[in-house]
Amino acid sequence: MAEAPQQQQQQQEEGGEKEEEQQQQSSPVEKTEPDEGAEEPKEIAQTTPSRPLLSMRSMSSVDPDDDTPNMIVYRKIEEIITRIQDETDGVPIRTVKSFMTKIPSVVTGADIVQWLMKNLSIEDPAEAMHIGSLIAAQGYFFPISDHVLTLKDDGTFYRFQAPYFWPSNCWEPENTDYAIYLCKRTMQNKTRLELADYEAENLARLQRAFARKWEFIYMQAEAQVKIDRKKDKIERKILDSQERAFWDVHRPVPGCVNTTEMDIRKCRRMKNPHRVKKSVYGVIEEGTQSQSPIHTPSHHCRKGTKEDVEKEIVFLNTQLDRHCMKMSKVAESLIAYTEQYLEYDPFVTSPEPSNPWTSDDPTFWDLEASKEPSQQRVKKWGFSLEDALKDPAGQELFLKFLESEFSSENLRFWLAVQELKRIPQHEVAQRAQDIWAEFLAEGAPSSINLDSHSYERTSQNLKDPGRYSYEDAQDHIYKLMKSDSYSRFLRSNLYQDLLMARKKPETEQGRRTSLEKFTRSVGKSLTGKRLTGLMQSS
Amino acid sequence: MACQGLQKGETLESLKRESETLKKKLEEERNKLNDVELHQVAEKVEVLSALSIKTRRVLKGHGNKVLCMDWCKDKRRMVSSSQDGKVIVWDAFTLNKEHGVPLPCTWVLACAYAPLSGLDNKCSVIPLSLDKNENLAAKKKSVAMHTNYVSGCSFTNSDMQLLTSSGDGTCALWDVESGQLLQSFHGHTADVLSLDLAPSETGNTFVSGGCDMKANVWDMRSGQNIQSFESHESDINCVKYYPSGDAFASASDDATCRFYDLRADREVAVYQKDSIIFGASTCDFSLSGRLLFAGYNDYTINVWDVLKGTRATILFGHENRVSRVRVSPDGTALGSASWDSTLRVSWSFSTGSNYIFRFIKLLFWVNSRLVLEFTVAF
Known about the structure:
By secondary structure, chain A is mainly alpha-helical. In chain A, 53% of the residues lie in helices and 4% in strands. Chain A has a four-stranded antiparallel beta sheet with strand order 1-2-4-3. In chain B, the strands form seven sheets. A four-stranded antiparallel beta sheet of chain B has the order 1-28-27-26, with no helix packed on it. The N and C termini of chain B lie far apart (85 Å). At the A-B interface, α2, α4, α9, α10 and α11 of A face α1, α2, β1, β17 and β28 of B. Chain B: Keywords: Coiled coil, Repeat, Transducer, WD repeat.
């Protein structure tokens, strides 16, 4: 393979480059902002005692103009990661002496949890552990003795990931790279670097898949081992762990979440194809395209044409003419609505007799569906005409009331028009005509009372009948019902009897029932949301 | 109301300048009405007694990420769609799987109780019947066609019309029977990710949210964009109306949820925390509108006090992103779907209030029995 020696050389050069950089950074150095789109690895190894002087600016490699959803999150995490490593305000990162060795550049899980709680205003340590675990799972810090990336609130040691390996660098490492990595691990004799079971399985699979170019991979691995050997022992420990953590993100332990998975709807605009990094070791898989098929150039937002801006101007002018409500009024309205329905909200007030989910008893559902509504349900019909009509029992009662007043045609018309809007398109024209015949035509059997203006408009609409032909008329009739019939309905005996539950008492049972009802209403006014005082003491 | 700049020869630049001026003016006008913040007025509202919400049902059966779920009107059945290409109907109360429909497209992004839409740019309606032996997949009917993926769909109060949102930047209203396009809605400048119909029986509007960070309110009859809200800093993944229909909430990749009122024509609350840095993908209101449940890409569900702007509680449990949360039709439970291939059902467990009420009830009952015995004895 004539290619190989060349590549080896390339490797060595790259490796040399890496080496150089590290040597530079082991002495205090002013860290400048990384170049946008720069391809060189920027390894900032956390060396022992003397930490390189890092500028207070974020080490973030996210392009500030990149507003894709993933990058937004990375930017936030990187800001946290920068702060957490700060010399004065961050966590204590130390070298820990253990038996015959030193463990460089580590911090305990407990320290991280404490820092997160303090700096992200978190009250519950469980929450801090959760967000910490997520940041670890994304690849920003890792436990030094585990492949599984979670944060524990104890003495477990963690290390921070090198910015070179940060996800914001758009890593999409290929399988050849992973193969080189696993291969090189097998060449190192230290027991701590032995492959885990799943890694051994992965290696076996890759050996089968890359059978024909295994020699090449092996040589690459050897070259990497040579490069690694040249490094300082402590640095190697750190770099090895960071490299392993990188692969824990991109080739996670089976059963662990692969945090590199993306929401497919957003894939199209995800990454600038030129920024995508495919290889840690400088090896591009032969025969693969230089960019993934999903990375199409992002001309995502439609450009604003003259027409678009003109439309926008018309729209803005319409908005300026709109009459809006003051915030104070809006707030009162929202609060009033919520307060009114609070007793019907099972998340706030326990339903009677019980929440079916809690008690495994569907009685509540049966009661709600029954034709014999509970007092609570009947009460709701009094909130608005809409609430009354929404409940089939309420609608029935209202209709009954209207019939007693000989004005049921209004509701029937309203219901017919609602139905008109719901039927298949091909039935609309006929149904519209039927409605006209029933409610609006001369001598119609259920003639409704429309003002002449609406009447004119509606008959015009009917020349080309559609599902919205009766909108004006329906609106008018609804308002009529609301202001006139509905308020009388609420005062009627028909409704009041049901509301006050003036039913025949069933002897003693009845007595108890009314007592129960009394205690229930007392209970309700005492408990629920007004029981805050008692709540606090219990 | 004619636009002053719509003369021939007006350049794009001058039009843009005019648009900017109008935007500033609009902002000024709106700010004049901003005399107080919602959470300030809400200080007088009683604090909610400590919510105790627990997850007690975990529905396992999908082989891959669950992307969408919805409740059936009977308040206990759910339908879910997954990347494994299946749609499953569950009885969440008994944990039984009732139907399993394999689909040709593996990315089924949205399902409402019956219609399904996905990355094949189509929205299909599958009639569900109680006959388990029926080959339901064969009865599938293609209804909506967009030029890009269909991100969301909703029935409009009946089985006969379907409203869809799409990655092609538009929304559309379809007649199910014929597949005819009844109305299309243009205005978003990027993918539309979510839509929600106004809850009112008398209303004809819906709200949509998209990758252009805008939430738009539309008139279904005319196809017009009635109102527009732009305050998020990234994609809006979900929009949901407040139960009264006067306001709506949105969940976004900028890690916030926001609350907009239509009458004030502005954002009235932002729900955010320093510790929440991952995007919110989904949201839904409790029945009274007091609570907003939001699912995030950090695997949690945060429950917000809508009026006060604070977080009421947080639900852990899912082991990957939460893709969808939905409150059941009668408000008794919360269903959530996740990339961890499970669905979970959570609800509020009675606080101490119930015990105290029962105690009082007992007192009265004991009292009444004593009175009875006493009266009888005489």
